[in-house]
Specification:
- The chain is an alpha+beta fold.
- The chain is about 30% helix and about 20% strand.
- It has an eight-stranded antiparallel β-sheet.
- Strand 5 and strand 6 (about 135-140) form a beta hairpin.
- It is globular.
- Mean pLDDT is about 90; it is low at about 1-10.
- Pfam families: DUF6301.
- InterPro entries: DUF6301.
Length: about 180
Amino acid sequence: MADSAPQGRTISIMRVDFDRALDAIQAATQFDWTWTVDDLPTFSERIGWQSSSPDDKNPSLTTNLDVNRTDASVLVDNTAKPDVRRPLEQMWFHASDVVLDDPSVQPELDHAFDDLAQRVFEMVGQRPTGWSLEPLRSLRWDLPTIVVTLYVSDEDVSVYLVSPEYQKWCDEIEASGDD
């Protein structure tokens, strides 16, 4: 009996790279951030990622995580004056495979999120400082030099590494715009 799935149905196996995701989070909590695009090559090299040039209008990162989407997204402030290094606002990456249109993986995604959150809690030594259930379930740790947020959706588990200054600005916008 080679396959126990009903005929015509494939079994999805979703991967989560806890070790490398945690390595990236730990490195981020210990990194000496200037929160400019100049941080990208140094941080990437330290954790085995690849970085495009910080001078690119939209810098990009490629992670070393063993998941099906190794691209990481970077948000920079492109409105900075020419004589100022562009602020790095946040970056995010996939800690799990990205699975589209397969609601059967939601319990596995939820479990992966819970497991990763527990490991982050143990690593940083403090309870989350924020959480949400809607529109996505998340946990957030506000640390002295970085804000770490984990999200789980119906597609993946992702990790956001955010500048405290940018997070503060986002929080102020959210607090003032409850319309």
